[in-house]
Amino acid sequence: MRLALGALLFFCLNVATADTPVRFVMADSWAMPMVQLEQGRPTQGILYDILLSLATQVGVPAEFHVLPRARVQNAMEHGEVDVRCYAAQSWLPNQSGDYIWSIPLFLQRDLLVSRKGPPTSVLPADLQHEAIGTVLGYIYPTLQPLFDAGQLQREDARNQEQVLDKLLAGRYRYAVSNQWTLDWFNQRLLPDQQLQAVAVLQEQNVGCYVRNDPNVPVQRILRTLLRMKMSGEIDDIIGLYTGQSDNTPSPL
């Protein structure tokens, strides 16, 4: 009888553990093709598809928490969420807590972008008294000295898509965009309207990190991410939304 009860208890504990969701955090400043947010909930996009596939392969439900960017790390530190993706350790110099990082999974390529014109390249240091379209709260290391000196001025918008909408409307001559968003944005425009990259500001490998907690299947998550990257699944999802591989070289 005791053996039967013990086996039943073990089975129930395993079921409870399997049904415990992994809590993924997303910043509300993200836009397509990273993620589409509708009424504060993700519905599609590169990171949404990748994380949903990750949870399915790990064998746990996925729970998405959409937070203001300034609250994301605090939520990780307080155990409110378990996994953050599309981040780099250099972005979090004062990170506190016990986390384990994945291998690099994505290439973050920040570009200086302008409206359509003759093919050209621009040196940001040569620009004078220009307003630059930027995302509120984002840090741009290449441009920061120019902002600090007053040579360039930030024109902040809530998310990356709004930045490009303002550029297209002529609110300013230049804006910063990551490669994914630029590719996605241009897909809906006629060739003579498409925005163009005029400088590569920064390229950096980014990945995911997981809160190191016994209630989180940390190693299964990391092994699955590795397998998804090595199999080409992650790059295939990126290509589905952007028409390009994550490793496609910059035209500049």
Describe the structure in your own words.
With 252 residues, this protein is an alpha/beta fold. The protein has two domains: 2-107 and 205-242, 3-Layer(aba) Sandwich (D-Maltodextrin-Binding Protein, domain 2); 108-203, Periplasmic binding protein-like II (D-Maltodextrin-Binding Protein, domain 2, 3-Layer(aba) Sandwich). The protein is 34% helix and 27% strand. The chain contains eight helices and eleven strands. It has helices spanning 2-19, 46-58, 69-77, 144-148, 160-168, 179-187, 218-230, 233-242, and strands at residues 22-27, 36-38, 41-44, 62-67, 83-87, 99-101, 106-114, 130-135, 152-157, 174-178, 196-211. The strands form two sheets. Strands 1, 4, 5, 6, 7, 8, 9, 10 and 11 form a nine-stranded mixed β-sheet that branches. Helix 2 packs across helix 7 (218-230). The longest helix is centred in the N-terminal third of the chain and has 18 residues, at 2-19. It is globular and about 55 Å long. The N and C termini lie far apart (72 Å). The model is unreliable at 1-17 (pLDDT under 50).
Which features would summarize this protein structure in a list?
252 residues, alpha/beta, D-Maltodextrin-Binding Protein, domain 2, 2 domains, two-stranded antiparallel sheet, 27% strand, globular, disordered N terminus
